[in-house]
Write a structure and sequence with these properties.
By secondary structure, this protein is mostly helical. The chain has one domain: Na+/H+ antiporter like fold (Up-down Bundle), CATH 1.20.1530. The chain has 18 helices and 2 strands. A hairpin with a 2-residue loop joins β1 and β2.
């Protein structure tokens, strides 16, 4: 532990370099943090006292990264409120169902065509289905799109994914780790998850006056400590009943957004959101060794292409079902295209179950590519929409012209 402080200093220096580079290029910081983390990951050299592998600090960076996810989702919840999500309930359920159905079916079909066994097919479908809450939240903040009309639907899809996650992870864990699964255990997990989410939403609707009174704390120091305690306790409790800890943070943000203290909380929480959020993406990069990715390049590229197509289709369908404009619908699909935490969890589950070794590098490369492409595509979504509008407009005009020409061509035998 002699060089613990030095290693943390090196990590923060690299993060600062990534932040400066992203600001200079006017691009999301997420890909830079992941790539710099990869560059100094487990394969990096040790030069004197400078150990770029961050061996001693890895557990600490991992914990601070998990805290970063909580702060990112908590702040995102503060930007909205329970009442706003309730009003959009039908569109969220429909949009989430469309999104899960398209991406899950695509993942199953792709893994099956790759010739993988059943357990590997189930793991691969999980890897390719669920988007990264942390990356999505960060991209929304970086591009200042919290007030966009499609952001409510994006938030709803993230929450809907977590309900699916609770069911799917429970079922697949039983199949992969024990060779069987208990229907009763799966159903219990899903009921607990739904009860937790709906219970907090109910509190956000009914207990606002009480929360207003409880959080009237003059001291900013005490106020912030109370908020932190609520955040970690609620997220931790949610995790014990198989609700992703990030969703617990999101729900707390949604509840507190209804109170008179929301602006004060936002003001105090921003520095923690940025600091710990950066550590999450840097820490994720540290876990990826590029020298282990070779055999998974083509499977990962194929999965990325399929995910891009599926996300655009799902975003357009979900957005239009929520009566969003075509451009907002495309933004929805592109914003949630990034993959991250859940994909890595599924890959670790495959490793624990002794499944095909290719699943770990496949997940790492797949996540890395989409973590880089996701923010880029979201940033350029307006240009992509204009390009697609011109392309499909031209195709429609060509189709109409071909039909007119076909109608004017005389049938054989008509000429005399």
């Amino acid at each position: 532990m002699d060089h613990l402080v030095l290693e943390i200093g090196l990590a923060l220096s690299l993060i600062a370099i990534a932040a400066a580079l992203s600001a200079w290029l006017r691009f999301s910081i997420v890909p830079f943090l992941i790539l710099i983390g990869m560059a100094v990951g487990p394969h990096a050299p040790k030069i004197g006292p400078f150990d770029f592998r961050f061996v001693q600090t890895a557990p600490l960076i991992e914990f601070m990264g998990r805290a970063g996810v909580l702060f990112l989702l908590f702040y995102l919840g503060l930007e909205f409120s329970v009442s706003r999500l309730i009003k959009a309930g039908r569109s969220i359920a429909l949009g989430g169902s469309i999104y899960i159905a398209i991406n899950f079916a695509a993942g199953l079909g792709y893994a099956y065509l790759m010739g993988w066994p059943l357990k590997e097919v189930l793991i691969a479908a999980g890897i390719t289905t669920i988007s990264s809450s942390a990356i999505v939240a960060k991209v929304i903040f970086d591009l200042r799109r919290a007030a966009n009309p499609e952001t409510e639907l994006i938030l709803g899809i993230i929450m809907f994914e977590d309900v699916f996650l609770a069911f799917y992870l429970s079922a697949v864990s039983g199949i992969v780790l024990s060779g069987a699964t208990s229907l009763g255990g799966v159903l219990t997990s899903v009921v607990l998850s739904l009860s937790f989410i709906l219970g907090l939403i109910f509190i956000g609707m009914k207990a606002t006056p009480l929360l207003n009174w409880l959080f009237r704390i003059p001291s900013n120091e005490v106020f912030l400590l109370v908020i932190f305690a609520c955040l970690f306790l609620l997220a931790g409790f949610g995790e014990t009943i198989h609700v992703a800890e990030a969703i617990g943070a999101l729900l707390l943000g949604l509840v507190l957004a209804e109170t008179e203290h929301s602006e004060r909380i936002e003001h105090l929480i921003v520095p923690f959101r940025d600091f710990f959020g950066a550590l999450f993406f840097f820490g994720f990069g540290l876990t990826i060794d590029p020298f282990t990715l070779g055999g998974a390049v083509w499977p990962a590229l194929g999965a990325v292409l399929l995910t891009l197509i599926g996300n655009i289709a799902a975003g357009m369908l979900a957005g239009r079902s929520a009566r969003l404009s075509a451009s907002a619908s495309l933004n929805t699909g592109l914003t949630i295209v990034s993959r991250g935490e859940f994909s890595i969890i599924m890959a670790n589950l495959a490793k624990a179950g002794g499944l095909l070794p290719v699943l770990q590098p496949f997940a790492a490369l797949y996540v890395l590519i989409l973590a880089v492409l996701g923010p880029l595509l979201t940033k350029e979504s307006e240009r992509i929409y204009d390009l697609l509008a011109k392309l499909f407009g031209r195709l429609r005009r060509l189709a109409r012209r071909d039909r007119r020409e076909a109608e004017n061509v005389p049938l054989s035998g008509d000429n005399t």
